[in-house]
Amino acid sequence: MQGIKTYLNRAVVVTTGDITTFEVDAIVNAANSSLLGGGGVDGAIHLAGGPAILEECRKIRSTQYPEGLPTGQAVATTGGRLKAKHVIHTVGPVWQGGSKSEDRLLQDAYRNSLTVAESLGVKTIAFPAISTGVYGFPRDRAAKRVAEVLKQYFSTPRTIQTVYLVFFSPQDAELFIREADSILDQ
Ligand code: AR6
User: Fold this and answer.
1) Whole-number CA gyration radius for the chain
2) Which of 4, 27, 50, 146 is deepest in the core (most CB within 10 A)?
């Protein structure tokens, strides 16, 4: 997996592609609270990973989260048929104009996903651009929030070696780099 730009001593790799094809220990799913699937990257992950993922999601719902997974939280399932061993499902915020804690909730989603990954011994993890599709979070603003989380996260030694930020289009990756450079390139 080639990156188009790396940051923080190569701990963060900005790249493009279909996240379901990534050979990493874990991929993150931009899910919804139901954990029962949806469109976008969620649909693609369930389609590529097969029914084992949904089965585990249903179990998590019935045991841990009968009301659904709250926004900003994260849980792990098998990767099923994916090359990734684990899928970490998180729920990003729906954009409502910016005054409903969307920034903090987006950062919670990334941070809690990293914490779950650590607990599984994950060394390499790939994130899609959570909330920037159907949920409507502005891409430029999301880039800054993600950069802040990663900068802070890697300011202490970590067992996670590489975080891939996977963008569907080169334009999205370029936009991320433009917004995040001033935060990560120091
Ligand atoms: N690989 C990498 N990135 C992708 C892929 C892929 N295969 N498919 C889409 N993207 P979205 P959200 C990008 O809408 O905004 C679902 O229905 C896409 O270009 O998937 O968090 C869930 O069930 C965009 O930049 O997630 C929820 O209901 C980014 O992934 C809801 O959508 C996120 O877009 C979550 O909305």
Assistant:
1) 15
2) 27
Cα of 71 vs centre of ligand 1, distance in Å, is 15
Say how many Å lie between the CA of residue 41 and the centre of ligand 1: 4
Specify the 3-state DSSP secondary structure of 169. coil
133 C-beta closer than 6 A to ligand 1: yes
pTM listed for this prediction: 0.98
Q: How many CB atoms lie within 10 A of CB 72?
A: 20
Nearest Cα neighbor of 53 from 26, 17, 92 is 26
Domain locations in the chain as residue ranges: 5-184
CA of 185 to the centre of ligand 1 (A): 27
pLDDT per position in the chain (186 positions), as tens? 667 999 999 999 999 999 999 999 999 999 999 999 999 999 999 999 999 999 999 999 999 999 999 999 999 999 999 999 999 999 999 999 999 999 999 999 999 999 999 999 999 999 999 999 999 999 999 999 999 999 999 999 999 999 999 999 999 999 999 999 999 986
Ligand 1 pocket member 70 (CB < 6 A): no
The domain covering 5-184 belongs, at the CATH homologous superfamily level, to: Leucine Aminopeptidase, subunit E, domain 1 (3.40.220.10)
